[in-house]
């Protein structure tokens, strides 16, 4: 008789749920809206209710359920407490404690970016690797570090905050974190648009990017279509990202880098151009690392949350 | 009845031995010359003989000995094999296998820089921390990453090769690794001397450093004596090192950085100036990390090697 795990990804607009069997198959997934009203006080009760509902609906016995894994957008302590999570309107919240009390099940909690990395390791682009770095290129740049199959949480919950590696200390504009010249300012979707804006303003070289609102997607589309200004922007982005990844590699020396997030929808060309710069900058032994695309998309969080429960 | 551990640090000129009790006291230490002749074929037999001699001399019973830990200057596989170690004139060597066969004891092997980091965690500047980054500023810049009390070896034995983080991709001179602009080129003893040479050549500002052979020690001595050119060099070094450490921090988010190696003999002033730049560049949550000096000096290797045996 197989056992079951609930994997949950709490986001600012919706909470995603997955019911997994312990071999890793996703049996069913669903989502509910995230109620951030009243400092998000209903989020965990809503999560508990959804789990209890599915538990009853499926007629599962308690001993068949291994536990519940949860990814949240914020730092998480070893004991599953969250000091604050801005997107959920949370101050301090004992996520593991509250859900354990409501459900009577083992609950494990992790930061959403770290949990997504674990998901990609378990069932996605990094399948089979035990040492992995995930780089998520979205509105910001997030990440997750896996060493020997386990998430590196860090002493202050900032393990994997790789978007905040400073590459250009002389950068005038501040990053969201308050520092200057972070990778996030060059390699996130907004960062790429920013690089593009600067490049386009620098001269009047012809480009299909002129005249439209420049997004990271537009830059990659123009790059694929052979636009030479877009190519310069993409090379600049890839130079920054490849160099940052080379620095991370000399810290934990991963077997594989998994690149995800909205920007990664550019696909294989993104891997190719980033790999060129990674190989240029990496310490020789680290050049054996592979660069791959994330494959789980929005489901990485629920997969990783389920895996979190199986970790110990 | 207490148990015993042998901690061994195999260097290019001498092999250091320590006999520890499991609580961590160093009962006795000694060393023998490293015989690198004939591709270093006598090194491991010499090590085994020295251990067997001490074992007999002390009248230890086999069941009283937990095992033997060994640090070697080169990459080490999970199974204790060394693909090559240039300073020992070794090609492939099954260090764990050879010593286990000769001694009939459990043998654990690690890279010397990583093992030193473990030693500083166990009994040195990082005592009490489970998440630590050691930065060794010697002829080169080495390092060791500890996550949850364990060494991060990496997928290709390059975990902790933090001296090869590229900070100045436009640097014209190559690093020993073949890349350009690695931290090692700015923060090692030779790197600091190099920064000093450049600064002194840039103009004719008066400095006590002029006219003598410029070493890292001379730079720090002049800095302590109030020399303003030396201060510029030290600030430049600290800016690079502090920025590099801030990048490492956003990967594994350590509780403490332990700074060791010959350059660290400059003492407290070194910590103060590096901390200034680390705080400037670090991701906010990572600013809670402490910077401390290594305290075990040349004994970090034997302590860490002993701890390696106790790890599992």
From TrEMBL, chains A, B:
Molecular function via GO: ATP binding; glucokinase activity
GO biological process entries: glycolytic process
A Pfam entry, by short name: ROK
Keyword match Transferase: yes
Cellular component annotations (GO), alphabetically ordered: cytoplasm
Enzyme type, top EC level: transferase
EC number: 2.7.1.2
Keywords assigned: ATP-binding, Kinase, Nucleotide-binding, Transferase
NCBIfam families per the UniProt record, alphabetical: ROK_glcA_fam
Family recorded in the similarity comment: Belongs to the ROK (NagC/XylR) family.
Protein name stated in the entry: Glucokinase
Organism field: Wansuia hejianensis
High-level lineage: Bacteria, Bacillati, Bacillota, Clostridia, Lachnospirales
